[in-house]
Design a protein that fits this description.
The protein is an alpha+beta fold and about 120 residues long. The protein has one domain. About 15% of the residues lie in helices and about 30% in strands. A 6-stranded mixed beta sheet has the order 3-6-1-2-5-4. The termini are close together.
Length: about 120
Amino acid sequence: MELKLNCHAKDALFSDTHIEITLSKNPTESDEIFIAEVTPRIRKIMGNDGEDWSTETLKEKLKGKKVLIEGWLFFDYSHRTENYSDDPEDKIGRENWRETSWEIHPITNRLLEDTFEVIYFSH
């Protein structure tokens, strides 16, 4: 996925990593998905601290595990017609694929196994 906010970057290293968080390993509906994102800047900061936050490494370390995520709460206006909180009956805009336009963006601290299960990554 090419993101305008990353100057149309196509290289995963310079694009946000989208992490879909759910309360179960097999969510039955899109309304059970919450988004958290790692930005290229945070990825670089973690890299300077010796941690690999590439999309592939995060997916390998986190998929299917319970994690605690810290970051900024961000209302992503661009998804206001693609979520169940704003469009509960999925009648406006694009097809709903997430619970809400609110997301953690960016993740700002190390990810700790604790609370949620990460089941899918995309960028």
